[in-house]
Amino acid sequence: MTYFGMPFGMWTMFAGSFQKQLTVVFGYDVDTAKTITKKATCTTNGTKTFKCACGDAYEETIKATGHLHKETRNKKEATETTEGYTGDIYCKDCNTLLEKGKTIPKLEETVDKDAPIIQAGSVQGYAGDEVTIPVTIKQNSGIAGFSYDVNYDSSKL
C-alpha cells in the first residue's frame, strides 16, 4: 500500500513530522481539531471526531472503559453469634452490581473447653468489714503461675 508514492511503513515512520507539516500547510491541528462526540462508558464505546480546516473529518472509536473503579458494599464480619457477608462488588462509575457476595459462617466458639474455670463465691458484709471471697479453680491441670484480677462494682457495695 502506498500513499503519494511512499510506502505505508514510511508514512508511519514519519507520522509525527508529517502531522507537523499538515498543521503548517493545511491548518490541521490534531490537538484542537479532535472532539469527543460520544464519551465511552463502562460498557459502551465512545467516538472521537477529527476535523480538518479543509472540511474533511473522520471518526475513531474510543473503547469502552470496563468497570475500572470498584467498591465493596454491605460487607459484614462474622462473629460467634451472627453470620457475616463478604459484600457485593459494585462499579462506582455506573453503579452496576458486578459480583454478589457470599455468606460467611458464624465463627466457632473460641472458649477453650479445657481452660481452668474460676468460680467466685458470694459473701455478705457491712461497710468497713473486711471480707474474704472464696475462689475455686476447676480443671487446673497443674498449670502454675496464673494471676487473677478481681474487679467489682463499687456502686453496689
Short account of what is shown:
About 15% of the residues lie in helices and about 30% in strands.
Structural overview:
The chain is of the alpha+beta class and 157 residues long. It has helices at residues 8-13, 15-26, 30-33, and strands at residues 2-3, 6-7, 34-38, 46-51, 57-62, 70-73, 84-85, 88-91, 97-99, 103-104, 117-120, 135-138. The strands form five sheets. Strands 3-4-5 form a three-stranded antiparallel sheet. A hairpin with a 7-residue loop joins β3 and β4. It is rod-shaped, with a radius of gyration of 38 Å. It starts with a strand and ends in a 19-residue tail after the last strand.
SSE map:
Blueprint: E1 2-3, E2 6-7, H1 8-13, H2 15-26, H3 30-33, E3 34-38, E4 46-51, E5 57-62, E6 70-73, E7 84-85, E8 88-91, E9 97-99, E10 103-104, E11 117-120, E12 135-138
